[in-house]
TrEMBL record:
InterPro entries: Endo/exonu/phosph_ase_sf (IPR036691), Endo/exonuclease/phosphatase (IPR005135). It comes from the Bacteria. This is Endonuclease/exonuclease/phosphatase family protein. It holds the Pfam family Exo_endo_phos. One of its GO terms (molecular function) is endonuclease activity. It comes from Rhizobium mesosinicum.
Length: 308
């Protein structure tokens, strides 16, 4: 019986470790979600290996344990790679950004979400799948008189609100799957012009669409050589090879550790698929997660930015 239990555990753990390890050979889109959960799967495999060793002391159990630990540690190292430089404590805040995918059928919570936006203290707000707050625009406009997106409810995906006027504002298609899911604006913060790109990417298991969208996003970034913020729902964690390639190619960084945003039911044990990135001369002082998901399947993020 003990031999059978050990063999079953070993087969399951080996399959999971093999799937995660494929990231070092291929960035195949169908495994992208598995790669995003590398740390979680590594920890689970390590626990499974310990259980297997209690069932039967065997060299293969130790091999699985070492492999699981190495995959977990490398996952943490990869997350740490894209951590931005921490600013000095006395550096004044330049602006606050809120980014939140509120889920497009979350109409019953539209009023509560609008309340959260108004109470956030954010200077700029990026709302994705924004149709549930479409009816709240009149009162949101009292604090955020400048906006782009949601000119008609049937095309209301990305809505950007600002307390300050836009010096430039554009909406672009990104990739081939969805339309008008990249909003680009520029805002002047007391003499510091900042460019913002707000993408909403497709899910990683929709063939190569997300990879194509990241290539388009990289191309959209090229003319923006100054202060830049890229924020939105990427539908993948930084551990996904496509996201890593994008960050290495663009020099973007983020807060570390990133707050987890999905799935909501997992709370702090989920993964970060919503991101707020930047690059010098901007630094992120801190990124926090909204305490309430307000009925969405994502948590929202709030980041404070300073100029180095």
């Amino acid at each position: 019986m003990r031999q059978t239990v050990f063999c079953v555990l070993s087969v399951i753990i080996t399959i999971v470790l093999a799937l995660v390890s494929l990231r070092y050979l291929t960035d195949f889109w169908l495994l992208s979600l598995v790669y995003s959960f590398q740390i979680h799967l590594g920890i689970l495999c390590a626990i499974g290996a310990v259980v297997a060793l209690f069932v039967k002391r065997h060299w293969y159990g130790f091999l699985m344990l070492v492999a699981a630990i190495l995959l977990t540690l490398h996952g943490v190292i990869m997350l740490r790679e894209f951590a931005g430089k921490p600013p000095a404590d006395d550096t004044p805040r330049l602006f606050r950004l809120m980014s939140f995918n509120i889920e497009n059928d979350n109409f019953e919570n539209g009023g509560r979400i609008a309340d959260a936006i108004l109470a956030s203290g954010a200077d700029v707000v990026d709302i994705m799948e924004a149709e549930p707050v479409f009816a709240q625009l009149p009162r949101l406009s009292q604090l955020y008189p400048y906006r782009i997106g949601c000119s008609a409810s049937e095309t209301c995906d990305t809505l950007v609100l600002s307390k300050r006027p836009f010096t430039r504002q554009e909406i672009h298609d990104i990739g081939e799957l969805w339309k008008q899911r990249l909003v680009s604006v520029s805002i002047d913060f007391d003499g510091t012009p900042v460019d913002f790109l707000f993408p909403h990417l497709s899910k990683p298991y929709f063939d190569d669409f997300q990879s194509d969208e990241l290539q388009d996003l990289t191309a959209f970034m090229q003319p923006h050589t100054g202060a830049l913020v890229v924020a939105g729902d990427f539908n993948s964690s930084i551990l996904a090879p496509t996201i890593q390639q994008f960050l290495r190619g663009t020099g973007l960084t983020t807060d570390f550790p990133e707050p987890t945003t999905w799935p909501v039911a997992a709370g702090p044990f989920g993964i970060s698929i919503d991101h707020i990135f930047t690059r010098p001369p901007l630094l992120i002082r801190a990124t926090s997660r909204l305490e309430d998901s307000f009925g969405s399947n994502h948590y929202g993020l709030v980041s404070d930015f300073v100029r180095q």
